[in-house]
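Design request, tokens follow.
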């Protein structure tokens, strides 16, 4: 297990516009290491290199012209970034981003607790699941605070996301151990440092309100994400109820199985009484 980092504090960023990719990268690194301008610069650099490769390659003139005329293949006008941009940002810190269905990620499919971070993506939403000081947390920027995940729930949750169409990536390498919290760069306007106790208190407080801990309930992706959570909780509840009813059901079955025999005996006794009365 890793040593305690950042004094045991958790770094979380809440949703700002469509900057979930920025929030995702920073929560993987556990600190405000990148801004939207940093990722935009990486996207621009990738676009330049890709256009150069298309221009020098063997692609047809028509296809190359279509590609070169596009504004960007790595950042949308709304601010959504490609996985390639996230990869480049994390490579700065000597971290690798690996698709969960890659052969080298086989062990993670068996036991995800062996990893340290996952990046999850669906449509235009990114978020990070990260192990911090030996405990797993969901750092989705649509939530007011990081949400603690048990090891058992982690595996079930990742499987549920995959089954719902989410793309899952592993992050491997030497993660930064510390970020100078007291420095002037310790906050980027939407980031905050929380103790695990503070995070738990915020989550519980939000769960007690009419609208749970969601920051922006208007986004379709957050709706799908919430549905996944509710479905998993419903399945867990059904399994628990089924398990609790199993033994009583078996006992009832044994009782019901014995009942017809008793009814047959009672019927035979009644018939004997009737025959006796007729004989008299």
């Amino acid at each position: 297990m890793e040593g305690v980092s950042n004094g045991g504090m958790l770094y979380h960023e809440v949703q700002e516009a469509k900057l979930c990719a920025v929030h995702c990268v920073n929560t993987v690194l556990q600190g405000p290491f990148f801004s939207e301008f940093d990722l935009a610069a990486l996207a621009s650099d990738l676009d330049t290199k890709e256009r150069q490769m298309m221009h020098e390659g063997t692609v047809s003139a028509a296809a190359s012209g279509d590609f070169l005329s596009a504004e960007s293949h790595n950042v949308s006008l709304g601010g959504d970034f490609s996985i390639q941009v996230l990869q480049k940002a994390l490579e700065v810190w000597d971290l690798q981003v690996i698709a969960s269905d890659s052969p080298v990620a086989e062990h993670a499919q068996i036991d995800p607790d062996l990893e340290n971070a996952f990046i999850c993506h669906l449509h235009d939403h990114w978020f990070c699941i990260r192990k911090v000081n030996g405990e797993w947390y969901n750092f989705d920027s649509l939530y007011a605070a990081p949400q603690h995940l048990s090891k058992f729930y982690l595996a079930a949750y990742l499987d549920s996301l995959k089954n719902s169409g989410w793309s899952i990536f592993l992050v491997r390498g030497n993660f930064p151990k510390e970020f100078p919290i007291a420095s002037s760069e310790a906050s980027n306007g939407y980031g905050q440092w929380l103790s695990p106790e503070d995070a738990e208190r915020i989550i519980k407080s939000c769960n007690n309100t009419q609208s749970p801990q969601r920051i922006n309930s208007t986004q379709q992706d957050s709706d799908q994400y919430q549905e996944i959570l509710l479905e998993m909780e419903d399945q867990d509840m059904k399994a628990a109820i089924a398990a609790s009813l199993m033994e009583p059901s078996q006992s009832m079955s044994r009782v019901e199985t014995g009942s017809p025999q008793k009814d047959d005996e009672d019927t035979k006794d009644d018939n004997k009484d009737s025959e006796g009365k007729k004989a008299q």
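Comment from the thread starter after seeing the answer: thanks! The CA atoms of residues 32 and 82 lie 19 Å apart.
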